[in-house]
Amino acid sequence: MYVSFETIPTFVWVFIVTYAIYLIKKPRLSKNEPPLIPYKYPIIGHTIDFLFNPENFLAECRQKYGDPFNIYVFGQVNTIVGNEIAHEVYQSDTFSLSVATRDSFPLYRVLRSLDNPETMESLIKAIREGITAKLPLYTGRMQKQLMGYINKEIGDCPKPKLIDTAADNFASMIARPVADVLVGQEISKNEDVIKAFADFTKDFASILAIPPILSFIHPKVHTQVITLPLRFGFNPILKHMITLKKHLKPVLEKRLKEKKILGDKYEPPLDIIEYFVNDLENETKVITEGYMNKICDFIFITVVASIHTTSRQLSSALYDFAGRPELWDDLYEEQVRIDKESDGELTSQHVNKMVKLDSFVRESLRTFDAVAAIPQKCMDSYTFKNGMTIPKGRTVLTYLSDIHYNTTAYGPNPRSFLPHHGMENNIPASKTDKNYFIFGSGKHACPGRFFAVNEIKIGMHKLILKYHIKTPSGKVEKKVFHGPLAEPPITGLIFENR
């Protein structure tokens, strides 16, 4: 190969720049940190193994170096915490999920209320007081909304019908009861609002499609680049905001008017927007544009935290059911018995009696989720009980496979599907513990998990009663992995009338 004299300086500069980046980005650990796993490639570190072989890579690291350990991915050191250490992270106020996700999922660029640190506190309070505490009151409405979707989107299946699940993983199904609870029964009948709720997270995620290559320089560089479209006017989710405002504003104005006229005789509707407007911090006499922005931000933050994850979990549970014919009769018999007891109208007591289905859902959740996920940002230097210390600013990832597949809790074959484990051990699907982190744990546990589990159970109850459900292969379909993150299978499901 001929190399001209003029090309030599180019090679020299490339070498100098590459070496400078290597020196700048070379990880420097402080004293008493968890061990940094050795890597072959400067700058790249463990990125390739973490993206393309996360299960085997992290298992080998865990076996050789214990819990916790450090890996070097996309130019940043991340601490991986597993079965022995993770519970410490979730019991401490030193770690923040919201801060950790700002760079990788910069929703605050669109929902400005997220810039206020009190927003998440208000959201958690609203979910606990406005939804979880009143869950029995929502049960009837929930099943009505779910049946509306089932009858419309799946419908009558006298012959086997293949339903595509890849498009939204039943997001439209989950969006209906969520809309009912958030914005009320009147607005939740509007198909445009349902579509806005179902598509919001998916459309925002389209902005994040660029791989975080620029994070090798710095995470903020990547964030600045992926959010450029927003700053230049391309906002694929603005239409959803406009849709919600259009239908929500007249309802809010009507309620304020009725409240003023009726006074103490006013009967407040049961939904989160009523909870929001009755909260002293959010009281208003006039529905201004600023007030609409605030309440719509509040609603869509809840949508992001609920619909996408719950619909994925429902979809995965249906695949687990469809691919395991040995479980069909047992689960069907329980649903038939409860349907007869309830005369087709479920109450919270009937949902609580679905112990076999609850145990099945718990096991589906345990075996579904990512290899490693749930980033937490260390807000101050923190020392684990084993004496290891991590610095302020460090991102901590939960090694979910190490937690959900540990032999102490789940026996000698923890990767096998154990449909009766929750029932035999009296552990409901919504209960978090040190061996089950699907909803987080401790102070960082998801406040909406009770509602989410009820949605999944009621949805599966109605579907199992109405249809035979199978996979195209007749077997358990493989999940789709994007790096260490899991998605439900994309093969579709076959429905046939019982």
Automatic annotation (TrEMBL):
It is found in: Membrane. The keyword Transmembrane applies. InterPro entries: Cyt_P450, Cyt_P450_CS, Cyt_P450_E_grp-IV, Cyt_P450_sf. CDD domains: CYP503A1-like. PROSITE patterns: CYTOCHROME_P450. Heme binds at residue 446. The keyword Metal-binding applies. GO terms for cellular component: membrane. This is Cytochrome P450. The chain crosses the membrane at residues 6-24. It comes from Diversispora epigaea.
